């Protein structure tokens, strides 16, 4: 999508701190981290929200990389949180499907 911030990041029109990239998935460090590790994992094709997913293989592609990154960062041993916000009421600021990987500290429940 032409005006999507995350599409521009995935297309490298806007610089980011790249963590992972392949032909389907792009991962980068969040610019306002909420934990010592805070990485966003996005599909390279534009999907606005989780509710808009039509081809569910995109979720498999994303979560395969979530697990890969978590293992590389050692989070698979200590624990990590994944978050998908869907819609403004949930706190979604950029309308491009993205999974937050959060780790490196203790988390409480409920999340807020």
Task: Summarize the topology.
Layout lengths: L4 H6 L7 E4 L3 E5 L7 E7 L13 H16 L2 H4 L1 E4 L15 E5 L9
Antiparallel strand pairs: 1-2, 2-3, 3-5, 4-5
| CATH fold group | HIT family, subunit A
- Known CATH architecture: 2-Layer Sandwich
Low-confidence stretches: none
Largest sheet: 5 strands, antiparallel
Return Rg in Å.
13 Å
Secondary-structure element string: HEEEHHEE
**Name of the CATH homologous superfamily:** HIT-like
Helix content: 10-25%
What would the average pLDDT be, to the nearest integer? Answer: 96
- Broad shape: globular
Helix count from the secondary structure assignment: 3
How many extended strands? Answer: 5
Work out the strand percent.
15-25%
Number of domains: 1
Structural class: alpha+beta
The N- to C-terminal Cα distance equals 31 Å
The level 1 CATH classification is: Alpha Beta
Strand order of the largest sheet: 1-2-3-5-4
Q: Could you provide a short overview of the structure?
A:
The protein is built from three helices and five strands. It has 112 residues and is of the alpha+beta class.
Fold and architecture overview:
The radius of gyration is 13 Å and the shape is globular. The protein has a single domain (5-103), classed as HIT-like (HIT family, subunit A), CATH 3.30.428.10. It has 112 residues and is α+β, with helices and mostly antiparallel strands. The model has no long low-confidence stretch (mean pLDDT 96). The protein has 3 helices and 5 strands; from the N terminus they run αβββααββ. It has helices spanning 5-10, 57-72, 75-78, and strands at 18-21, 25-29, 37-43, 80-83, 99-103.
């Amino acid at each position: 999508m032409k005006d999507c911030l995350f599409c521009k990041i995935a297309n490298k029109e806007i610089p980011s701190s790249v963590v992972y990239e392949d032909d389907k998935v792009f991962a980068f460090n969040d610019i306002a981290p909420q934990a010592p590790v805070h990485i966003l994992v996005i599909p390279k094709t534009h999907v606005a929200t989780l509710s808009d997913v039509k081809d569910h293989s995109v979720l498999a592609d994303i979560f395969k990389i979530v697990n890969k990154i978590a293992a590389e960062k050692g989070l698979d041993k200590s624990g990590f949180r994944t978050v998908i916000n869907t819609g403004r009421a949930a706190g979604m600021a950029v309308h491009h499907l993205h999974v937050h990987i959060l780790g490196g500290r203790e988390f409480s429940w409920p999340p807020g």
